[in-house]
Amino acid sequence: MDGPPRPAPPPPPAPRHPPSAPPPVRDTSDVLRQIMAITDQSLDEAQARKHALNSHRMKPALFSVLCEIKEKTAMSICGTQQEDPPDAQLLRLDNMLLAEGMSRPKKRGQGAVAVAGTVTPGGCPNDNSIEHCDYRAKLSQIQQIYHSELEKYEQACHEFTTHVTNLLREQSRMRPVSSKEIEHMVGVIHGKFSAIQMQLKQSTCEAVMTLRSRFLDARRKRRNFSKQATEVLNEYFYSHLSNPYPSEETKEELARKGGITVSQVSNWFGNKRIRYKKNMGKFQEEATIYTGKMAMDTTEAEGPGSQASRLSSPSPDSQGPFLLTSAGDMVLALRTLAFLQPQPQVSRMQGPHCHFLQGSSPLVHSTPEPFPTLPIIGKFCQEWSTT
DNA sequence: AAATATGATTGTTG
DNA sequence: CAACAATCATATTT
């Protein structure tokens, strides 16, 4: 057995386990560095042992010994099959990202179905296009970074997994390595990488949330409507002063004409009604202007910029064509109504819309208007108080 | 800079 | 849920 004197005594007792155990990893770069280190080390070791042992006569014996040892320790491996479930949080993050529109186009989501749904239509349809553009640009920027990072991680994970798998397969010639062990190893690696991914997802979520909150804040920032918009709105308001409650349809139309959203129209009417009611004195001038303009526009050919007089008046608008037969009458009647209506001449009328221009507003009385068309009021109030 | 105008939000109500 | 009322926060005017 010890015939030829070998000049080179194989130095296999390499320091296989220099430190006892690697310290708990925290940083991603640390993880990566350790991974790389382990890789090189393992590779060298494997190569050395491969050559050293493969040609050794004692290899079969060693193999069987290792088998025995393994059988004794196998149970402990099986026993330590605990699966910590951070899935909940990961899933939550996934869903969150998905909801923010960070749908993954390429990656088959690990468990998340590719819900390529558009953003919920209930929130904000095609609202403000200016700030919305900015918002979406930034969002897609985040998305891009997120995807590229994710891809990097996945690629690294895949590479490393392949590497380790090959290594283990090679080692399986020297020592017994079951496929299950390889699987386990792969699982461990995936776990590590998914932890990194989770960090990525979390920071992405944070970024998105920050962006979103900033966007919402920006929405709170007020910007005056365009002249066109205010004109359209005021025209409708003052030409329907008696019942300034545009229907949903009309709101849409007004929104379209003014280049604003329906909810903005609603806000505007809400503000306008209440502010008009609060003190009408301030709005007299405006009222005259718009009602006058209305009359002009309706009687004459429409000017180049204003075609806002053809707003679809909802059919139940009883007093409109019913009471006001001509444009001149309309102006008169409107102004009359605007100032006389609050006076409780007509005994308490009750109706869904009767709150407008009722009670309060002492200013009304302080601005006497010589309009003796009282009978109209009675009729008028009857008209829309009963609807 | 103070005052006012104005669009949006919030909380309440029917 | 729409309307109201109060309020916020900014824009514009003075």
Automatic annotation (TrEMBL):
Polar residues bias: start-end ranges: 306-318
What InterPro entries does the record tag this protein with? HD, Homeodomain-like_sf, KN_HD, PBX_PBC_dom, TALE_homeobox
Q: Where is this region: Disordered?
A: 1-27, 298-322
Tell me the ranges covered by the Homeobox domain, including all copies.
Answer: 216-279
Q: Which Pfam families match?
A: Homeobox_KN, PBC
The UniProt family comment states: Belongs to the TALE/PBX homeobox family.
Q: What is this protein called?
A: Pre B cell leukemia homeobox 4
Q: Which organism is it from?
A: Jaculus jaculus (Lesser Egyptian jerboa)
